[in-house]
Amino acid sequence: ASPCPGPGLGCPPLRNVSGAQYVGSGYTKAVYRVRLPGGAAVALKAVDFSGHDLGSCVREFGARRGCYRLAAHKLLKEMVLLERLRHPNVLQLYGYCYQDSEDIPDTLTTITELGAPVEMIQLLQTSWEDRFRICLSLGRLLHHLAHSPLGSVTLLDFRPRQFVLVDGELKVTDLDDARVEETPCASSTDCILEFPARNFTLPCSAQGWCEGMNEKRNLYNAYRFFFTYLLPHSAPSSLRPLLDSIVNATGELTWGVDETLSQLEKVLHLFKSGQYLQNSSASSSAEYQRLPDSTIPREDYRCWPSYHHGSCLLSVFNLAEAVDVCESHAQCRAFVLTNQTTWTGRKLVFFKTGWSQVVPDPNKITYVRTSG
Ligand SMILES: Nc1ncnc2c1ncn2[C@@H]1O[C@H](COP(=O)(O)OP(=O)(O)OP(=O)(O)O)[C@@H](O)[C@H]1O
């Protein structure tokens, strides 16, 4: 709800931040969540003075300032890349500040959009629609990286922890290990893409570069860390063949990033337009009575994967799908259509065990099962 900070933030707003909270750290950098004077929450990233990178350099060379500069180079590189690679699935850079800190002059702090770390276990418990959003975000990001103004960018360190979620969208945050140069080669034996579970040999182009190696490295990583877990599991059954083909083709690297994205966009279209429902059994003998401007305050049951803990809140394309869902749940006797929608525009619906108490609510419509 807080206003978004404008671009080009510098040092002044950092002097009056409030509620600083440690978010996380890696090898080199530490991240803090702070509130700016205007109320917006942002992430501040700086070299971690107690981090592994700085610590091991100081132990080896005993040169604190020099070691700081070496580590800060990674943060600087990341900042430049965030700026040059601007995209909805690249974390937004709001600004930066150079200031003296401890005994080191001109330490760098970057100010970016705040995200939430990607927790795989948590993602596996969310709806297919939300998991698909993450895979589509990733597909769009990889397409952007493959066709970026800098050339085809590959993420050498590609793990879920390099990404964060911002309002359900996946965004890359850690870009210090990004590389643009393709691998030079004399023959295809120089073009081996190695992963822990398998290797791929790519062609060596006439110009002496391993063809598509950067984008394929990203793609296989997307497959092994994200697609294989998030795409097929509990998807609408009519979309399964298409989703399986995306998982298989990325796992075998038979498609490039362009084809992968176009297939992901096709899934989005089929899902958003309701075409995936074509073969579903909309023909139910049950009848439902419509009670406009009303809701059922209690009589909840739990279902999976509900958007709400303790009640059954699911998204549907239309009324027919809501009826189908209610018919498929043994406890369901009624449902309440809300005016809230998901990121694809689907309506959120509460499913209920009964309708002994119906109360007025101008933003909802109740449907009660009357026969069948
Ligand atoms: N904008 C952000 N919002 C919320 N959390 C973030 C943000 N940026 C980074 N993080 C979290 O902070 C952690 C450390 O950040 P980052 O990955 O940039 O540091 P690093 O030292 O480069 O780590 P690594 O050792 O993985 O390379 C990340 O794992 C991520 O979970």
UniProtKB/TrEMBL annotation:
<dbReference type="GO" id="GO:0060021">
    <property type="term" value="P:roof of mouth development"/>
</dbReference>
<keyword id="KW-0333">Golgi apparatus</keyword>
<dbReference type="GO" id="GO:0032332">
    <property type="term" value="P:positive regulation of chondrocyte differentiation"/>
</dbReference>
<keyword id="KW-0221">Differentiation</keyword>
<dbReference type="GO" id="GO:0004715">
    <property type="term" value="F:non-membrane spanning protein tyrosine kinase activity"/>
</dbReference>
<dbReference type="InterPro" id="IPR011009">
    <property type="entry name" value="Kinase-like_dom_sf"/>
</dbReference>
<feature type="domain" description="Protein kinase">
    <location>
        <begin position="17"/>
        <end position="291"/>
    </location>
</feature>
<dbReference type="GO" id="GO:0042997">
    <property type="term" value="P:negative regulation of Golgi to plasma membrane protein transport"/>
</dbReference>
<dbReference type="InterPro" id="IPR000719">
    <property type="entry name" value="Prot_kinase_dom"/>
</dbReference>
<keyword id="KW-0964">Secreted</keyword>
<dbReference type="GO" id="GO:0048566">
    <property type="term" value="P:embryonic digestive tract development"/>
</dbReference>
<keyword id="KW-0325">Glycoprotein</keyword>
<dbReference type="GO" id="GO:0005524">
    <property type="term" value="F:ATP binding"/>
</dbReference>
<protein>
    <recommendedName>
        <fullName>Extracellular tyrosine-protein kinase PKDCC</fullName>
        <ecNumber>2.7.10.2</ecNumber>
    </recommendedName>
</protein>
<dbReference type="GO" id="GO:0030154">
    <property type="term" value="P:cell differentiation"/>
</dbReference>
<dbReference type="InterPro" id="IPR022049">
    <property type="entry name" value="FAM69_kinase_dom"/>
</dbReference>
<keyword id="KW-0813">Transport</keyword>
<keyword id="KW-0217">Developmental protein</keyword>
<keyword id="KW-0808">Transferase</keyword>
<dbReference type="GO" id="GO:0030501">
    <property type="term" value="P:positive regulation of bone mineralization"/>
</dbReference>
<dbReference type="GO" id="GO:0030282">
    <property type="term" value="P:bone mineralization"/>
</dbReference>
<dbReference type="GO" id="GO:0005794">
    <property type="term" value="C:Golgi apparatus"/>
</dbReference>
<dbReference type="GO" id="GO:0015031">
    <property type="term" value="P:protein transport"/>
</dbReference>
<dbReference type="GO" id="GO:0035264">
    <property type="term" value="P:multicellular organism growth"/>
</dbReference>
<keyword id="KW-0829">Tyrosine-protein kinase</keyword>
<keyword id="KW-0892">Osteogenesis</keyword>
<dbReference type="GO" id="GO:0035108">
    <property type="term" value="P:limb morphogenesis"/>
</dbReference>
<keyword id="KW-0653">Protein transport</keyword>
<keyword id="KW-0547">Nucleotide-binding</keyword>
<keyword id="KW-0732">Signal</keyword>
<dbReference type="GO" id="GO:0005576">
    <property type="term" value="C:extracellular region"/>
</dbReference>
<dbReference type="Pfam" id="PF12260">
    <property type="entry name" value="PIP49_C"/>
</dbReference>
<dbReference type="InterPro" id="IPR042983">
    <property type="entry name" value="PKDCC"/>
</dbReference>
<keyword id="KW-0067">ATP-binding</keyword>
<keyword id="KW-0597">Phosphoprotein</keyword>
<comment type="similarity">
    <text>Belongs to the protein kinase superfamily.</text>
</comment>
<dbReference type="GO" id="GO:0001501">
    <property type="term" value="P:skeletal system development"/>
</dbReference>
<keyword id="KW-0418">Kinase</keyword>
<dbReference type="GO" id="GO:0048286">
    <property type="term" value="P:lung alveolus development"/>
</dbReference>
